[in-house]
Amino acid sequence: MKIHIKGGHLIDPAQDIDAPTDLYIAAGKVVALGDAPDGFHANRVLDATGRIVAPGLIDLCARLREPGLEYRATLESEMAAAVAGGITSLACPPDTDPVLDEPGLVEMLKHRARMLNLAHVYPHGALTMGLKGQRLTEMGELFDAGCIAFSQANVPVADTQVLFRAMQYAATFGYTVWLQPTDLHLSSDGVAHEGEVAARLGLTGIPILAETLAIGQMLQLARATGCRLHLARISSRAGLMLIDQARLDGLKVSCDVAIHSLHLCDVDIGYFDPQCRTIPPLRAQFDREALRAALADGRIDALCSDHTPVDDDAKQVPFAEAEPGTTGLELLLPLTLSWAREMQLPLRLALARITSDAARVLGLDAGHLRIGSAADVCIFDPDAPVMISRATLRSQGRNTPFIGRELLGKVCATLVSGQVVYETPANDKAAR
């Protein structure tokens, strides 16, 4: 299949391209930018006039709920949601059922994803067996099976000795450890940010100390072992300050933030809205503003959707009993664009945080449209409205605090390895 994407405005942060440019694809690869190569005859022409042509989006954290949790979502539903949101590559944490702590489970997930022929899936292997924080997994075998990093998802490791040994193991073989910084004991009973809102509503709070204490411990272990550390879903200004200092000290540490943490704060809980129950919790407004600024200036490396499909029964209960999590795959692009507009940032910078910067964090050769690279492409209209509703979401998990909002940024077509896997009507024509 040879495809000509014509008339679009190409934005490729990795190549510093931000200009009207045609794109030519053959055999699943980018073969030319601007002018067609000699003898190129397109089988399809995608008309991108008035639209942005960008590398396919990369999501650092999306729970696909397989294996074992298909009543919440299936691989088919979530992969369809991913490509509808312009996402062509995603990393999934290991908190499935059973946990991704055996090579056979990883191989099965990779095989299922390949058979669907939609987005690329990059699993994280469990750091400890069953995520119980007691016994290390065979990281080498999991890496050979297709895991690109090792994680505890959002389950803290209480035993510091176990975490120390895990980071030593990872450092020996050059693996990256992904940890969500939460102190087990300070956060175990909490359901919301410890502050005025939680106090007024009578909700048990999770203090910022739960994050900063864990970050400090993790950074010290990374310093002692030389392990590459990624801190996932940072939620506080105080946590950012610790990471800033660690980088000044030369530690190999990166971090990300969930997209909902840029737009919401603890005030949005309102009158016990269970859609706003997340891990980590929505913090105070000044924390949200610090996260928005840090992402803009690069102190936070990348954005993620933190996509966590939850069934209705687990959300239609009192706030303290609701299961944490929101759907995010289809909202990543429009919410990123909204953040960029509000911060008055160039579109190229915003796209970098969900393409090339995200690829760098994952260690992938992706997130760009260089000649010879896989043709993973997102075509979108940045000014087209998108109404967020349960009826329009493709994810099986339709719980999000953004229901009812109208955002800007509509995905028109998504290509994965040169194949059109999602498109809206009337945006292409067959080549003659």
Largest sheet: 8 strands, parallel
User: How many strand segments?
Assistant: 21
Spatial gap, N to C terminus: 14 Å
General shape: globular
Q: Roughly how many Å is the radius of gyration?
A: 21 Å
Structural class: alpha/beta
Task: Tell me about this structure.
With 432 residues, this protein is α/β, with parallel strands linked by helices. It is built from 14 helices and 21 strands. It has helices at residues 75-84, 103-116, 139-145, 160-173, 184-187, 196-201, 209-225, 237-248, 260-263, 285-297, 312-315, 332-343, 347-353, 356-362; strands spanning 2-6, 9-12, 17-20, 23-26, 29-33, 44-47, 52-55, 57-59, 87-92, 120-126, 149-151, 176-179, 192-193, 205-206, 228-231, 253-258, 302-304, 377-387, 406-416, 419-423, 428-430. Strands 8-9-10-11-12-15-16-17 form an eight-stranded parallel sheet, sandwiched between helices. Strands 3-2-7-18-19-20 form a six-stranded mixed sheet, with helices on one face. Strands 5-4-1-6-21 form a five-stranded mixed sheet, with no helix packed on it. Helix 3 (139-145) links the parallel strand 10 and strand 11 (149-151). Helix 7 (209-225) runs parallel beside helix 8 (237-248) and helix 12 (332-343) crosses helix 13 (347-353). The longest helix is centred in the middle third of the chain and has 17 residues, at 209-225. Mean pLDDT is 96; it is low at 428-432.
